Amino acid sequence: MITLPFLVKVRSLLRNLFLSTRVHAELDQEVRAHLGMLIEENIRAGMPPEEAQRAARIELGGIEQVKEQVRDAGIGNWLHAVISDGRFGLRQLRKNPAFTTVAVLTLALGIGANTAIFSNVDALVLRPFSLPGLDRVVAIWETVPKQDAYRVSVAPANFHDWTEQSRSFEYLAATRGWDANLTGEGVAERVEGYQVTSNFFPLLGVPAELGRQISSVDLQQGAATVVVLSHGFWERHLAGDRTVLGKTLLLNGRKFTIVGIAGSDLDFPAGAQIWTPFDLHSVESTDRETHSLLVLGRLNKNASVSSATADLQAVAGRLAEQFPGSNAGHGVRVIRLAEDATNGTWQFVMVLMGCAVFVLLLAAVNVANLQLARASSRQKEMAIRSGMGASRWQLIRQLLVESTLLALAGGAAGALLANWGMELLRRDLPPFIMAHVPGLKHVAVDFRVLLFTLAVALGSGILAGLAPAFRFSGCDLNDALKESTRSSTAGRSAGRLRGVLVIVETALALILLVGAGLMVSGFRSLLAVEMGFDRTHVLTFHIALATEKYQKKDQIQSYYDRLLHQLQTMPSVDNVACATSLPSGWSWNWTEYTAEDHPPASAGEVPSTVSQIVTPDFLRTLHVPLIKGRFISPADGPDAPPVAVISESMAHANWPDQDPIGKRVKLGRPESSEPERRVVGVVRDIRSSAFEPKPNPTTYVPFAQMPQASSAVLVRTSADPLSLARSVTQQLRSIDPGTPAYDVRTLEQVVSDNVSGVESSARMMLVFGLIALALAAAGIFAVMAYSVTQRTHEIGIRMALGARPFDVLRLVMASALKMALLGLTFGLGVSLLLTQAISNAVFGVIRIEPPVFASLTALLALVGAVAAYIPARWATKVDPLRALRGD
Amino acid sequence: MDSRPTTLLQGTLDLLILQSLMAGEKHGLGVSRRIQQISGGTFVVKPGSLFPALHRMEEQGWISSFWGESENNRRAKYYRLTKAGKKQLEAETKRWDRISWAIAQALEAS
User: Do A12 and B84 touch (CB under 8 A)?
Assistant: First the structure.
């Protein structure tokens, strides 16, 4: 029974804490009873009553004294000691307001940084979705290992077979994007919607706020026209009206009945505003080619990710044998949803978290240093306390309690700072990112985060208190008592410990500075990437025609003809063009293709190209130069021969030594019915994204030969692009009020939004770097200044013996530079290793850049030198006579 | 045998208290008198050391306490040995036997 005594201890601790008056009363009663019994005993022995009482009191030795002795022995006593240590510590800190302020602020910076970043880690990485049992929810993808594709959307028929044949899941559900134009009552807006199977909501497990969610009822006779609204959409658009159930919304021109409002926690897929039923069993139940579904599963109790993978892999293997044409080489990947959805954000967040930890270490080292300096002047106090009988542990406890008090104050201030830090991280994040990065909306300093802050504060308090505590308890107190505060040389071990702290501090500061420098430089090089197009003076927006209303190609074509014509004739508009996707936008469209002279070696090795379906003015609008041949012209109509224009890298990939003009290329899989297109021109490469290491091979196809319901529209103007936005929306309304423009931004905005995540990380790291620089400078300065005052006597002697001011300067600077050099070397080594380790994780944004390393090392060395120089100058001003007479 | 009271060796007080409780539950004075009795009057435990020891041992779980009536109908706090206390007594007894044997050996040798 090991636990029993422990429980008894805990109980008695609690009793002492919460029932202390009762404990005292009982003790009093017990001792008085004892006295009473002693008296009785004495009377029985034949003493007269008065004598009996006197003898009993002598034997007892005083009621209060006995009680005091009992209290000293108990566990409650330990608690009282800590409280009185705390009181004493507070008095000490109050006596030293300058030290206290600096230490608290320093710790606040360190702790605040950690709180701010941890709140992001918590929301973005640990709990990206607030779903019950999130660790059992998985995303399921098809894989085509031969093409290096591991996140392929699922084909409907495959999903159907998985559902029938797998045994690992409590629920399997599928969803696919179904964005719609919302019209009626003066609004025309694009809403982000998803079609979901009947298991979708039960799988997520978040109850509806109002009404019901989509269930099998809605799929009994095809998909019912009902809709569930997200909590946010309901509040924004319907002002949280609770009588909204049963009313209808006009989506893509059709009436959908509102049957429910989802719970406010339900944010899946991230950014979803509406959900409608998805009927898998209609036309698509045999389709194994259209990979369009996002599939989710909730593992049942006996299944793990790996057992579920094996289960589905077996099903996929059978399907590959049964349907070799579509399924050969296709596998399955099961991955926890939280992991799947946070790829792309967690790397950045974790790098920031690492930096925040370094900032905290730096702050703790600084405070340790301050305490060491202060501790030296308290050496006598400690010696006296020890002489009066304080044990080694009691002295350590006193110092630890003091530094923990500092850290708790720092933690409180840090939590306030953290709010500001989070604002800094979120500032200027585009709405698209805010809506679509899972968890980003929930980032807040909440209870969990505050708990973390408390833990960090306690930890850093102990960390910052350990060095001075052990320094004291280890030193010979007799020596300390004899040593005067102005001794000839500073205590050797104290000096060495401070030296080590300065070295560590310099190294940490360099690591942070280099990290910040590399991030900022990485961000700037992202901005500076030659995109290959002119991003200035272009307004962009998207439109999507409702396919219910625009079913025929010529309807679509005539809408776009009108659109281009009307916008083109607006004043100050130079060119207007449509394209499948914006260069450097959020997504772009990849298509497989076959090129003349290059039949694919096998079914698994069909190459891919970015396909852009564009109107004739596209290149002119973006100022992309033509290299060879011609660009798409208005003559490339639906009945003209199919043509394509390709990018330089596409030409190089297929016909490196030949003239690509006149060659044939076919988009889509080899067996598809797409026509072969004759290449009529080659244009300069443009970048799909600043993150791509090189331009993607791109194929441009005339819009008229492949009309698309949804398009990006680009308008080049001589005026300020945003000033055009209002009149453009008016023009659109005049063509079709049911088709709103959405995602209206300038092209410059599009490009910078694309790298905004890096921008906010870089901004945060820059702040960390500056804090590091300031802390390091303060640390070096404090230590050097302290060591100069400690060595005044020695310097005085040296000067009396004939040392010139320059010699003194050199003496002080040399010791500072030695420490700085060690710190810089150490820091440089660690940053090189770290950079190498993370350069892959953050998409090549951070690379080893020698100039950054060199310039920041030099900067830190310079700052360190200045911080050491000022105290060194003081040293030269030492008056030898006064220094020697000092004692 | 010298019958003057002797100061207790460090660490033996616990042993004596545990031993005195072996015979059954007792209040503080009972423990004190019992120790006096079993040591042939050699050890007299003053309340100033007795009560701190009792409370400390209670916190360690070796003894437990309850309120009861004394012989003269006085409310008094009684202590009794717990399981852990019995184990502790065994361990302490063994330790003491070793020490006393060793000291006896050492004294004989000279």
Answer: no
- Interface contacts A/B by beta carbons within 8 Å: 81
| Chain B contact present for A390, CB below 8 A | no
- In this structure, are A183 and A316 located in the same domain? yes
In a 10 Å sphere around its CB, with 0-12 CB exposed, 13-18 middle and 19+ buried, how is residue A762 labelled? buried
Task: Tell me if chain B has a CB within 8 Å of the CB of A15.
Answer: no
Nearest CA distance, B1 vs chain A (angstrom) = 24
Same domain, A552 and A525: no
Average pLDDT value over all residues in chain A? 83
Q: Specify the long-range contacts of residues A556-564, CB closer than 8 Å, at least 24 apart.
A: A556/A707, A556/A708, A556/A709, A557/A638, A557/A704, A557/A707, A559/A735, A559/A736, A559/A739, A560/A615, A560/A703, A560/A707, A560/A711, A562/A735, A563/A713, A563/A731, A563/A732, A563/A735, A564/A615, A564/A617
A283 belongs to a structural domain = yes
Residue of B nearest to A44 (CA): B72
CB contact under 8 A, A37 and B49: no
Q: Which residue of A lies nearest to B83 if distances are taken between CA atoms?
A: A1
Cβ of residue B68 closer than 8 Å to a chain A Cβ: no
**Helices and strands: H and E segment counts in chain A:** 29, 24
Domain locations in chain B? 12-109
Are A729 and A769 within one domain? no
Name the DSSP letter for residue A123. I
Q: Tell me, yes or no, if B84 comes closer than 8 A to chain A by beta carbon.
A: yes
Do the domain assignments include residue A24?
yes
Q: Are residues A146 and A283 in the same domain?
A: yes
- A210 and A335 in a single domain? The answer is yes
Q: What residues of chain B lie within 8 A of the CB of A36, using their CB?
A: 74
Across the interface, whether the CB atoms of B75 and A12 are under 8 A apart is answered: no
Confidence check: pLDDT of A869 > 90: no
Q: Does A388 have pLDDT greater than 70?
A: no
Instruction: Name the pTM for this structure.
Output: 0.72
Domain region containing A60: 3-73
**Pairing assessment for the beta strands A608-614 and A698-702 based on DSSP bridges:** parallel
pLDDT, residue A15, reads: 67
Residue A587 confidence (pLDDT): 74
Contact criterion met (CB < 8 Å) for A29 and B60? no
What CATH architecture is B12-109? Answer: Orthogonal Bundle (1.10)
Touching check for A38 and chain B: CB below 8 Å? yes
pLDDT confidence of residue A485: 45
A446 close contact with B: CB closer than 8 A = no
* Domain membership flag for residue A123: no
Q: Any CB–CB contact under 8 A between B51 and chain A? A: yes
Contact yes or no for A8 and B59 at CB 8 A: yes
Q: Which residues of B fall within a CB distance of 8 Å from A59? A: 46-47
- pLDDT for A631 beyond 70: yes
List, for residues A419-454, the tens digit of each pLDDT value: 888 887 777 777 777 777 788 877 888 888 889 989
Check whether residue A728 and residue A580 sit in a common domain.
Answer: yes
Which of A254-268, A590-604, A769-783, B3-17 is predicted with the least confidence, judged by mean pLDDT?
B3-17
Q: ipTM value, please give it.
A: 0.85
Using the 3D structure, point to which of A737, A771, A795 is the last residue of a domain: A737
Contact A29 B77 (CB under 8 A): yes
Smallest Cβ–Cβ distance between A61 and the set B27, B47, B77 belongs to B47
Structure tokens given for A369: 């240093």
Same domain, A770 and A636: no
Burial of residue B2 (CB within 10 Å: 0-12, 13-18, 19+) is exposed
* Amino acid A77: pLDDT: 61
Give the relative orientation of helices A756-790 and A747-754 as an angle to the nearest 10 degrees: 50
**pLDDT-based confidence at residue B3 (cuts at 50, 70, 90):** very low
pLDDT of residue A1 exceeding 70: no
Q: Determine the residue type at A257.
A: T
Q: Decide: A544 and A709 in contact? Cβ < 8 Å.
A: yes
Taking only the tens place, the pLDDT of each residue in A588-599 is 788 888 887 776
Residue A418 lies in a domain: no
Total domains, chain A? 4
Domain boundary residue among A708, A737, A766?
A737
